[in-house]
Amino acid sequence: MSETPQALGAPVVRREGRDKVTGTARYAAEHPESGCLYGWIVPATVASGRVTAIRTADALAVPGVHTVLTHDNAPRLEEPDDPILAVLQDDRVPHRGWPVALVLAESLESARAGAAAVHVEYASTGHDVVLTGDHPGLYTPEEANGGHPGLRQRGDAMRAFEAAPVCIDAVYTMRALHNHPMEPHASTARWADGHLTVHDSSQGSTAVRNSLAQALGIDRDHVTVLSEHVGGGFGSKGTPRPQSVLAAMAALHTGLPVRLVLPRRYMPAIVGHRAPTLQRVRLGAGRDGVLSSVSHEIVTHTSRIKEFVEQAAVPARIMYASPHSRTEHRVAALDVPSPSWMRAPGEASGMYALESAMDELACALGIDPVELRLRNEPPVEPDSGRPFSSRNLAACLTEGARRFGWSGRDPQPATREEGPWLLGTGVASATYPVLVSKSTASAQAAPDGSYRVGVNATDIGTGARTVLAQIAASVLGTSPENVRVDIGSSDLPTASVAGGSSGTASWGSAVHKAATALVRRIAAHTGPIPPEGISVTADTGEETAQESPYSRHAFGAHFAEVAVDSLTGEVRVRRLLGVYAAGRILNSRTARSQFIGGMVMGLGMALTESSTMDPAFGDFTESDLASYHVPSCADVPDIQAHWIDEDDPHLNPMGSKGIGEIGIVGTAAAIGNAVRHATGARLRELPLTPDRLLPYLP
């Protein structure tokens, strides 16, 4: 069978789109279960301490309330693989919002009323929830998220910085950020004949199955986790969350199916967040703009439950050529909810600071910001010395400048006006690593000429079903419509989580390998295909175990035009342009959607989104979408996404790189740099809200 080139790269319409808009697609809380109980969490109201008493009589008297689970009567768990899953096991309160009870009732309304009637007494201890740059508990971890060393040094960055003719030394601040997917975290669990089935809103049902099996002390074969449709995740559903464990425990305790949906106001305390960062960037350069020293130091927080360190200094290790470099992460363990992944963890926050500092250096030198970046292109990865598998950042910057009309830009700040509006433009670079994990896929040929592919991938809104069908079709020599794709069940061949922009590369490589093996099997088969079909299974364990000799990254360039109201301080983004080098684009329609979605998220990061830690109560004050402001349709301007045709043979059989997260990485910095160009004021704390801008406006 010959490859069908049009199967890859074509703008194939996502195959589950109609199901979603017509309501046919069922999410985790929409699967009917006879006799189902509804759960409602009782969250801790102190930031640190212990539960001394829980009185449940009033709750049990509420009509419809069936059971109240506490640490006194909840099923005992084995030690889970993630400490945040050890819920209702003891009387400790590690942070405000930690589940201390679970009310189960015949209706959601009764469960909520019952939870309000539970009376909890605490022995509260003093809490520490505020991150500062000189916090006495700061330490340098061995590793940051992703296994990156906490500290990396090349040469003598401080001495080179002090000797540099031109220096930038600035601190950039970001508060905590929260994922707010349209579908809240939800689980529906039932036990039947010793087998646990859970419908879970998750980015990886294999991981949820494994965690539940370990926590419950049962064999993995006795657990099935289904995540067929997921209404967004952005990292917050990338690891198992407490609602899945609570639902499974409650179903075991009651013998009835249990459905648990987290109210949105509970999510900031339970499902992770992007940790706040204080970032000091020091750049030393010659008067020609060539960098001699790069230093990026991160201060962030983690919880007392487990260590999670936002790897924000890592991008500085690969972005620009410099003989001297120092990148360090420092972290303090506080009485806060556990931070976790949020779209483009590390890169989004770290590149905001680095790309803002590069803009400051361009201004100090009087060099065009695009030209400054081009002058500091490294021939190999600075940190490791490995060659890049491909690096087309320069092409992205050049093509982006052409499309944006950058050459006509007046570099002088605060010179363009349109009535009360101050106009400005800005640019920033973006990068994201190429990640891939072991996955397994099956491929089957049926007698009627159709094909079926099975892999436990998760579609969190990216169009995974569609692109996997395209990958299989390109190998099988058929149309994507002739390939059925089964995903979203832990009973399918094991696959990696949908995270780190690695899904398509990981699952697609396994699908490609299985389809290739199926082609060979069919070619060797004589006679018609039997009624049961011909099936093969393949995994990528051998391929993913090999460490690549190349530094593999996607790159991009973001350009922004903003208007700042000189009377109110309001910032309006008029244009956003992203140009990317991300290997072979496998579906132009869904890829453009991914790029634009990331850019919108970056717009929110720049202008509206932040979570404030209340030092008195120890919780995040922005606990719903009325206070945590994500961009609305009125905030989204003319957004365009384009890409460079990139042929990189050192990636995977498809030649693809991840695209889910790079769209957010440089957007906030580009907008911030445009605001500086419009107003002449350099603000180093996000978001750029009117109250922060007004003092600097004429």
Widest sheet: strand order?
Answer: 3-5-1-14-11-12-13
Name the structural class.
alpha+beta
Counted beta strands: 27
Q: In whole angstroms, how far apart are the ends? A: 69 Å
Overall 3D shape: globular
Helix content: 10-25%
Taking pLDDT < 50 over at least 5 consecutive residues as the criterion, the unreliable ranges are none
Task: Note the beta-strand portion.
Answer: 15-25%
Salient structural properties:
single chain, 698 residues, alpha+beta
Molecular structure report:
- This protein is an alpha+beta fold and about 700 residues long.
- α5 crosses α6 and α11 runs parallel beside α12.
- The radius of gyration is 26 Å and the shape is globular.
- The termini are far apart.
- The relative contact order is 0.14.
Summarize the structure.
The chain is an alpha+beta fold and 698 residues long. It is built from 17 helices and 27 strands.
